[in-house]
Specification:
9 helices, 14 strands, alpha+beta
């Protein structure tokens, strides 16, 4: 097998009729999340987007499921998908009552929980301030200008005898409701980095805490969770607006050293060519540290995920 230091994914994901990420509501109107970006023409434009927080949450949920299935270590809090992670684990709270330094706390996090190792956490209990940086970094999944649109549609909860007495109780959600829901469709730019070299690594002592077999198992779980994120994005409002996933095309860059796997935003039309050029230049400087692979469908992307698990 070949060693892998990091990999990055840059691509264009087609999503139709979804409402995966919203900003809240005003009255009976749910507001879709909007961001302002700089287009290639140098002008600012508003587009709808899905936050990196949402996609990181989706990926973390898939990682918990994978860790359970594969028997990877999880703290009691992450087993129940507690957003506070190990900071809300009873066994960790008891252990932390003793006087430990940041290096010892980091060792505990890495050894005892796959999610805290890979997804990161900040421990602030007992007057501590111990950070664990995530191995996975998601950018905003942002609509490409002129290739994305948002609409709002009227809905009503139908009831028999809607005007009858007893059906207008305030705050009880028992009366007839009318509301407006957003729906979004289009092509979205995706950027993410995965730092494989830091799996099981204590950033303070600069040593690996778990053995190669344990790191290999976590690597496989991490790749699976990233892959599943794009096959089943577990965002908001999926009970009646489950997303129609279309094509996914892009580039995966891979590094076998400390050279970073490069990214270029798919908001640029020529991002693929630019990435190929960057990889070629860096390989001339670093004796072939990088590889690059393109994919043009979810089938291709799934195959690349399988190859990562089998070959690295």
């Amino acid at each position: 097998m070949k060693n892998l230091g990091s990999f990055s994914i840059c691509g264009v994901l087609d999503l139709n009729l979804h409402s995966l990420n919203n900003e809240g509501g005003e009255g009976n109107q749910i507001m879709t999340r909007q961001v302002r970006i700089l287009g290639e023409d140098g002008k600012l434009v508003h587009v709808n987007a899905i936050s990196g927080d949402m996609f990181k949450h989706i990926q973390a949920e898939h990682l918990v499921d994978t860790a359970r299935e594969k028997g990877l270590p999880l703290c009691s809090a992450c087993k129940r998908f507690d957003p506070n992670r190990i900071a809300n684990a009873k066994e960790f709270k008891e252990w932390l009552k003793k006087d430990f330094n940041d290096a010892q706390i980091t060792n505990y996090l890495v050894e005892n929980c796959t999610v805290d190792d890979l997804e990161g956490i900040l421990v602030t209990a007992q007057n501590k301030n111990t950070p664990r940086k995530s191995t996975v970094e998601f950018g905003w999944v942002v609509g490409i200008p002129e290739r994305v649109a948002s609409d709002s549609h009227f809905h009503v909860k139908l009831m028999r005898d809607a005007g009858a007495a007893g059906n207008d109780e305030e705050g009880a959600n028992v009366g007839q409701n009318i509301y407006h829901r957003p729906v979004n469709s289009g092509s979205y730019a995706v950027v993410l980095n995965v730092d494989i070299g830091r799996i099981g690594f204590n950033d303070i002592t600069r040593e690996y805490v778990i053995d190669d077999e344990g790191r290999r198992a976590r690597f496989e779980g991490l790749v699976r969770s990233v892959l599943f994120t794009f096959l089943e994005p577990k965002g908001a409002m999926r009970n009646t607006q489950n997303v129609h996933i279309g094509s996914f095309s892009g580039v995966v860059t891979m590094s076998n050293s400390t050279v970073p796997a490069p990214t270029v935003s798919p908001l640029r039309k020529n991002y693929r060519d630019e990435l190929k050029s960057i990889v070629g230049t860096l390989n001339n400087m670093t004796d072939g540290a990088l590889e690059i692979s393109s994919f043009d469908s979810l089938t291709d992307f799934t195959g690349l995920g399988q190859n990562l698990i089998q070959e690295y």
